[in-house]
Each structure stands twice: as C-alpha cells, then as structure tokens.
Write a structure and sequence with these properties.
Strand content: 25-35%
Helix content: 25-40%
Structural class: alpha/beta
Number of strands: 10
Distance between the termini: 34 Å
Shape: globular
Strand order of the largest sheet: 6-7-8-3-9-10
Radius of gyration: 17 Å
C-alpha cells in the first residue's frame, strides 16, 4: 500500500497555546488508521490541522505527495480530505435530503450527486426512510449516520471521523463502527479519531496513541490492544 497522507514534524494549536508537538504519522491508502487517546490529548486539534481549519506552526502535511498545509480548508476538501466533525454539525432545520445535498456542492462532485445519493440510501436505508424529516428530530445514531452520509457525498479519498461514537448507546456504537468497516471495504481510506480505544483498535489496522499533544506510541492495532500500558491507561484492565 502507498502512503496517502503523511504528517511530518507538525506543530499546531490555538494562538499562543501549543497543542500538537512534533507529530509524525502516516495513513496508507485503503486502511483504517486509528488515533486514540484521552480527552484533551490533541486528537481533534490534529483533525482540524489536517483539514486546514488550524494552521501548522511547524512541519508539513502531504497528501498524495503534495504539501497541503499551506492551502485553505476548501482547497484541502477539494482534494478529497473530508472531515466528519465531532458533534456532527448538521443543519438542524434542514431535512435529511437537504443535508446530504449540501455534501455535493463542490464543483467536481456535482456530476455524481444522484449516484452518490442512491449509494448512501442503499448503505443507510434509515436515511431514505427519514429523507423528508428535519435533522434535529433524528436520534443521535441517525444524526451520526447523516453526518457520515453527507461526507460520503463529497467522494472522499480519505474520510476523517472525529469521535463518531460520542454520546451514543453501546448498541449504536457497534452499528457506527460496523458502518466504518463497510465504508473502508468499499475502498475509502479512513482516519478514525476516538476516545473509545477498544472499539477503535478492534477495527483498525494500525494506530497512534496521543498523549498531551505528542505521539506516545504507535504500531499494529492488534499489538497495541495487548500492550500493558494501553490496557491500564485506556482499557481499564
């Protein structure tokens, strides 16, 4: 597999507050990569930096070999780096159908709008059933499915999911993680940021553990899930 996304020596934060310190990681094409860690470890900051919402203060982010960290967020999205933000960020008073259509406003994806819409309704039949319902009336799980569906409308080369299990019941958490696996099997590369370390490691091929804005460890997920430190710090074992 080839490296789709490469992050080298990246530092980032909010104004004078530095959050990420010399981050190095990569995502291979076709894989599910997890970035796990406790609340406040810098996971969301990493996602916002990759997607161009926050500037890098050092280092470089390369996508398909091209440096992109100098680009505005909309240009990064046009290249196929699509983020599903923490908390879903739907348009609450618009319908399911309208929220999905918003995901196909970029010029290069308009031609495939109807095809993508039918794919998403097939992948997520509950959204088809609710297509005329306003987003604010959906359950938490349905809203998360809608947020993921909206991102898929943008033909992502890499789908970045920020805490997709947040606030969901255990049953819905399992449903969301199964959906992530289905999306990956269909050919979309996934970068998954999660506090639910156990579930994230179960479905990913590799993982990075963030602590206080630095990469504390990384490796195959199957090895990290058995690591004594990970077990004690994150799995309560």
């Amino acid at each position: 597999m080839s490296k789709l996304l490469e992050i080298e020596g990246v530092c980032s934060g909010y104004g004078d507050v530095k959050v990420l310190h010399d981050i190095n990681l990569y995502v291979e094409e076709g894989e599910i990569l997890s970035v796990v860690g406790a609340n406040g470890a810098g996971k969301t900051t990493l996602m916002r930096t990759i997607s161009g919402q926050l500037p890098t203060t050092a280092g470089e982010i390369r996508f398909m070999g091209e440096a992109v960290n100098h680009l505005p967020a909309y240009k990064i999205a046009e290249r196929g780096i699509i983020q599903v933000p923490e908390g879903r960020r739907l348009f609450p008073y618009m319908t399911v159908h309208e929220n999905l259509l918003i995901g196909s406003t970029m010029k290069h994806v308009r031609a495939s709008r109807e095809k993508n819409l039918q794919y998403i309704y097939q992948l997520l039949p509950r959204l088809k059933e609710r297509e005329r319902q306003v987003a604010s009336t959906l359950s938490g799980g349905e809203q998360q499915m809608l947020a993921i569906g909206r991102a898929l409308m943008e033909n992502p080369r890499i789908l970045m999911l920020d805490e997709p299990s947040l606030g969901l019941s255990p049953l819905l958490v399992s449903t969301v993680f199964e959906l992530v696996q289905t999306i990956a099997k269909a050919g979309t590369t996934v970068l998954l940021v999660e506090q639910n370390v156990k579930q994230a490691l179960k479905i990913s091929s590799r993982a990075y553990v963030l602590e206080n804005g630095v990469v504390a460890m990384n490796g195959p997920s199957s090895e990290l899930i058995d690591n004594p430190y990970v077990k004690k710090a994150f799995l309560g074992l």
